[in-house]
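lol ok so funny story. i was supposed to be doing the assay writeup but got distracted and ended up predicting the structure for this chain instead. priorities right. anyway since i did it might as well share w the group, maybe its usefull for someone
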Amino acid sequence: MEIASIPADTYTLGFIGAGKMAESIARGVVRSGVLPPSRIRTAAHSNPARRDAFESFGVSVLSSNEDVVRESHVVVLSVKPQLVKDVVSKLTPVITKNKLLVSVAAGVKLKDLQEWAGSDRFIRVMPNTPAAVGEAASVMSLGAAATEEDGSIVAKLFGSIGKIWKAEEKYFDGITGLSGSGPAYIYLAIEALADGGVAAGLPRDLSLSLASQTVLGAASMVSQSGKHPGQLKDDVTSPGGTTIAGIHELENGGFRGTLMNAVVAAAKRSRDLS
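and the output, tada:
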Protein backbone atom coordinates (compact mmCIF):
# COMPACT_ATOMS: atom_id res chain seq x y z
CA MET A 1 0.00 0.00 0.00
CA GLU A 2 1.38 3.38 -1.02
CA ILE A 3 1.90 5.88 1.78
CA ALA A 4 0.05 9.17 1.30
CA SER A 5 2.13 12.32 1.54
CA ILE A 6 1.57 14.63 4.50
CA PRO A 7 -0.17 17.74 3.07
CA ALA A 8 2.64 20.23 3.70
CA ASP A 9 0.44 23.35 3.67
CA THR A 10 -2.55 22.08 5.63
CA TYR A 11 -1.39 19.27 7.93
CA THR A 12 -2.40 19.07 11.58
CA LEU A 13 -0.02 18.41 14.46
CA GLY A 14 -0.86 16.46 17.60
CA PHE A 15 1.04 15.97 20.85
CA ILE A 16 0.69 12.82 22.94
CA GLY A 17 1.88 14.11 26.29
CA ALA A 18 1.33 17.73 27.30
CA GLY A 19 4.51 18.35 29.28
CA LYS A 20 7.10 21.13 29.08
CA MET A 21 8.90 19.77 25.98
CA ALA A 22 5.61 19.45 24.06
CA GLU A 23 4.71 22.99 25.11
CA SER A 24 8.13 24.33 24.04
CA ILE A 25 7.77 22.75 20.60
CA ALA A 26 4.17 23.91 20.16
CA ARG A 27 4.98 27.47 21.24
CA GLY A 28 7.99 27.58 18.91
CA VAL A 29 5.95 26.30 15.98
CA VAL A 30 3.29 28.96 16.56
CA ARG A 31 5.74 31.78 17.32
CA SER A 32 7.74 31.13 14.12
CA GLY A 33 4.62 30.90 11.96
CA VAL A 34 5.22 27.28 10.88
CA LEU A 35 1.65 26.42 11.95
CA PRO A 36 -1.26 28.39 13.41
CA PRO A 37 -2.47 27.13 16.83
CA SER A 38 -5.77 26.07 15.23
CA ARG A 39 -3.89 23.19 13.54
CA ILE A 40 -2.31 21.91 16.79
CA ARG A 41 -3.93 19.70 19.41
CA THR A 42 -3.10 17.72 22.54
CA ALA A 43 -4.88 15.97 25.41
CA ALA A 44 -4.07 17.15 28.93
CA HIS A 45 -6.38 14.61 30.60
CA SER A 46 -6.78 15.46 34.29
CA ASN A 47 -4.12 18.19 34.60
CA PRO A 48 -5.79 21.64 34.54
CA ALA A 49 -2.45 23.49 34.62
CA ARG A 50 -1.24 21.77 31.44
CA ARG A 51 -4.63 22.30 29.76
CA ASP A 52 -4.44 26.02 30.62
CA ALA A 53 -0.85 26.27 29.32
CA PHE A 54 -1.81 24.98 25.87
CA GLU A 55 -5.14 26.78 25.63
CA SER A 56 -3.42 30.07 26.57
CA PHE A 57 -1.89 30.26 23.08
CA GLY A 58 -4.81 28.78 21.15
CA VAL A 59 -4.06 25.03 21.00
CA SER A 60 -7.09 22.70 21.13
CA VAL A 61 -7.09 20.35 24.13
CA LEU A 62 -9.05 17.20 23.28
CA SER A 63 -10.52 14.64 25.65
CA SER A 64 -8.29 11.67 24.75
CA ASN A 65 -5.03 10.63 23.09
CA GLU A 66 -7.07 8.61 20.58
CA ASP A 67 -8.86 11.80 19.49
CA VAL A 68 -5.51 13.57 19.09
CA VAL A 69 -4.19 10.80 16.80
CA ARG A 70 -7.42 10.69 14.76
CA GLU A 71 -7.31 14.43 14.14
CA SER A 72 -3.58 14.74 13.38
CA HIS A 73 -1.43 14.06 10.32
CA VAL A 74 1.79 14.35 12.38
CA VAL A 75 1.82 12.93 15.92
CA VAL A 76 4.61 13.80 18.38
CA LEU A 77 5.08 11.36 21.25
CA SER A 78 6.32 13.45 24.16
CA VAL A 79 5.85 11.16 27.14
CA LYS A 80 8.35 9.78 29.66
CA PRO A 81 10.46 6.94 28.17
CA GLN A 82 9.10 4.35 30.62
CA LEU A 83 5.52 5.15 29.51
CA VAL A 84 6.04 5.06 25.73
CA LYS A 85 5.34 1.35 25.20
CA ASP A 86 2.08 1.41 27.13
CA VAL A 87 0.87 4.66 25.54
CA VAL A 88 1.73 3.64 21.96
CA SER A 89 0.29 0.13 22.32
CA LYS A 90 -3.09 1.59 23.33
CA LEU A 91 -3.07 3.85 20.26
CA THR A 92 -2.41 1.16 17.61
CA PRO A 93 -6.13 0.93 16.58
CA VAL A 94 -6.04 4.59 15.44
CA ILE A 95 -2.49 4.66 14.01
CA THR A 96 -2.64 4.35 10.21
CA LYS A 97 0.17 4.21 7.64
CA ASN A 98 -0.72 7.73 6.55
CA LYS A 99 0.22 9.27 9.90
CA LEU A 100 3.77 10.44 10.56
CA LEU A 101 4.87 9.52 14.09
CA VAL A 102 7.64 11.44 15.84
CA SER A 103 9.20 10.41 19.16
CA VAL A 104 11.20 12.69 21.46
CA ALA A 105 11.44 10.03 24.20
CA ALA A 106 15.08 9.69 25.25
CA GLY A 107 16.65 6.27 24.85
CA VAL A 108 13.70 4.61 23.07
CA LYS A 109 14.87 3.01 19.83
CA LEU A 110 13.15 3.23 16.45
CA LYS A 111 12.83 -0.57 16.09
CA ASP A 112 10.89 -0.73 19.38
CA LEU A 113 8.72 2.28 18.52
CA GLN A 114 7.89 0.79 15.12
CA GLU A 115 7.06 -2.60 16.64
CA TRP A 116 4.79 -1.16 19.36
CA ALA A 117 2.99 1.17 16.93
CA GLY A 118 2.66 -1.34 14.10
CA SER A 119 3.98 1.39 11.81
CA ASP A 120 7.44 2.09 10.34
CA ARG A 121 6.62 5.71 9.49
CA PHE A 122 8.53 7.03 12.48
CA ILE A 123 11.12 9.74 13.05
CA ARG A 124 13.09 9.82 16.28
CA VAL A 125 14.24 13.24 17.48
CA MET A 126 16.60 14.08 20.33
CA PRO A 127 16.02 17.72 21.34
CA ASN A 128 17.42 19.30 24.51
CA THR A 129 16.02 21.60 27.20
CA PRO A 130 17.09 24.96 25.66
CA ALA A 131 14.07 24.31 23.41
CA ALA A 132 12.27 26.35 26.09
CA VAL A 133 14.10 29.50 24.90
CA GLY A 134 14.22 28.63 21.19
CA GLU A 135 17.85 27.48 21.25
CA ALA A 136 17.55 23.68 21.14
CA ALA A 137 20.18 21.44 19.58
CA SER A 138 18.10 18.61 18.04
CA VAL A 139 19.07 15.57 15.99
CA MET A 140 16.68 13.37 14.00
CA SER A 141 16.87 9.87 12.57
CA LEU A 142 14.35 8.55 10.04
CA GLY A 143 12.60 5.21 10.50
CA ALA A 144 12.14 2.56 7.82
CA ALA A 145 9.10 4.07 6.06
CA ALA A 146 9.65 7.78 6.77
CA THR A 147 10.15 9.74 3.54
CA GLU A 148 12.48 12.64 2.76
CA GLU A 149 9.36 14.85 2.71
CA ASP A 150 8.53 13.61 6.22
CA GLY A 151 12.06 14.56 7.25
CA SER A 152 11.60 18.05 5.81
CA ILE A 153 8.40 18.57 7.81
CA VAL A 154 10.10 17.50 11.04
CA ALA A 155 13.16 19.65 10.27
CA LYS A 156 10.89 22.67 9.89
CA LEU A 157 8.96 21.90 13.10
CA PHE A 158 12.10 21.46 15.22
CA GLY A 159 13.88 24.27 13.40
CA SER A 160 11.33 26.54 15.09
CA ILE A 161 12.89 25.79 18.52
CA GLY A 162 16.57 25.92 17.57
CA LYS A 163 18.82 24.01 15.16
CA ILE A 164 18.35 20.45 13.93
CA TRP A 165 20.69 17.97 12.27
CA LYS A 166 20.12 14.53 10.74
CA ALA A 167 22.20 11.52 11.88
CA GLU A 168 22.06 7.75 12.00
CA GLU A 169 20.41 6.36 15.11
CA LYS A 170 23.62 4.58 16.16
CA TYR A 171 24.99 8.01 17.19
CA PHE A 172 22.14 8.83 19.58
CA ASP A 173 23.89 7.70 22.79
CA GLY A 174 26.79 10.02 21.99
CA ILE A 175 24.31 12.78 21.15
CA THR A 176 22.63 12.23 24.51
CA GLY A 177 26.00 12.52 26.27
CA LEU A 178 26.88 15.72 24.41
CA SER A 179 23.82 17.85 23.66
CA GLY A 180 21.27 16.02 25.83
CA SER A 181 23.27 16.27 29.05
CA GLY A 182 25.56 19.08 27.90
CA PRO A 183 23.44 22.01 29.11
CA ALA A 184 24.00 20.81 32.69
CA TYR A 185 27.80 20.88 32.17
CA ILE A 186 27.54 24.45 30.93
CA TYR A 187 25.33 25.48 33.87
CA LEU A 188 28.09 24.18 36.15
CA ALA A 189 30.68 26.13 34.15
CA ILE A 190 28.61 29.34 34.36
CA GLU A 191 28.15 28.89 38.11
CA ALA A 192 31.90 28.25 38.54
CA LEU A 193 32.83 31.30 36.45
CA ALA A 194 30.48 33.43 38.54
CA ASP A 195 32.02 32.06 41.75
CA GLY A 196 35.43 32.93 40.30
CA GLY A 197 34.26 36.48 39.69
CA VAL A 198 33.06 36.73 43.29
CA ALA A 199 36.42 35.35 44.48
CA ALA A 200 38.10 38.07 42.39
CA GLY A 201 36.00 40.72 44.17
CA LEU A 202 32.96 41.20 41.90
CA PRO A 203 29.39 41.58 43.24
CA ARG A 204 27.42 38.31 42.82
CA ASP A 205 24.73 39.70 40.47
CA LEU A 206 27.24 41.32 38.16
CA SER A 207 29.45 38.24 38.18
CA LEU A 208 26.62 35.86 37.23
CA SER A 209 25.38 38.19 34.47
CA LEU A 210 28.89 38.49 33.03
CA ALA A 211 29.45 34.72 33.21
CA SER A 212 26.22 33.79 31.40
CA GLN A 213 26.61 36.46 28.72
CA THR A 214 30.27 35.47 28.18
CA VAL A 215 29.29 31.84 27.56
CA LEU A 216 26.47 32.93 25.23
CA GLY A 217 28.80 35.25 23.33
CA ALA A 218 31.55 32.65 23.01
CA ALA A 219 29.09 30.04 21.69
CA SER A 220 27.75 32.57 19.18
CA MET A 221 31.29 33.34 18.01
CA VAL A 222 31.90 29.64 17.31
CA SER A 223 28.58 29.10 15.49
CA GLN A 224 28.62 32.36 13.51
CA SER A 225 32.28 33.05 12.71
CA GLY A 226 33.07 29.70 11.10
CA LYS A 227 36.40 29.69 12.93
CA HIS A 228 37.69 26.68 14.86
CA PRO A 229 37.34 27.24 18.63
CA GLY A 230 41.11 26.72 18.98
CA GLN A 231 41.71 29.66 16.62
CA LEU A 232 39.24 31.84 18.51
CA LYS A 233 41.04 30.92 21.74
CA ASP A 234 44.38 31.89 20.18
CA ASP A 235 42.87 35.22 19.05
CA VAL A 236 42.27 36.30 22.67
CA THR A 237 45.47 34.81 24.11
CA SER A 238 48.28 37.36 23.96
CA PRO A 239 51.88 36.55 25.02
CA GLY A 240 52.36 36.68 28.78
CA GLY A 241 48.82 38.05 29.22
CA THR A 242 45.87 37.39 31.49
CA THR A 243 44.09 34.82 29.30
CA ILE A 244 47.06 32.46 28.95
CA ALA A 245 47.52 32.56 32.72
CA GLY A 246 43.90 31.43 33.13
CA ILE A 247 44.21 28.76 30.42
CA HIS A 248 47.35 27.41 32.10
CA GLU A 249 45.30 26.86 35.27
CA LEU A 250 42.53 25.11 33.30
CA GLU A 251 45.10 22.79 31.69
CA ASN A 252 46.64 22.04 35.09
CA GLY A 253 43.16 21.07 36.32
CA GLY A 254 42.52 18.71 33.40
CA PHE A 255 39.62 20.87 32.17
CA ARG A 256 39.44 19.46 28.64
CA GLY A 257 39.90 15.85 29.71
CA THR A 258 37.22 16.23 32.38
CA LEU A 259 34.66 17.58 29.90
CA MET A 260 35.50 14.78 27.45
CA ASN A 261 35.07 12.22 30.23
CA ALA A 262 31.69 13.73 31.16
CA VAL A 263 30.36 13.27 27.60
CA VAL A 264 31.71 9.71 27.40
CA ALA A 265 30.29 8.80 30.84
CA ALA A 266 26.83 10.16 29.96
CA ALA A 267 26.90 8.37 26.59
CA LYS A 268 27.80 5.11 28.34
CA ARG A 269 24.96 5.59 30.81
CA SER A 270 22.57 6.24 27.91
CA ARG A 271 23.66 2.94 26.32
CA ASP A 272 23.16 1.11 29.63
CA LEU A 273 19.66 2.54 30.09
CA SER A 274 18.47 1.82 26.56
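The longest strand covers residues 136-142. The CA atoms of residues 12 and 115 lie 24 Å apart.
back to the writeup now i swear
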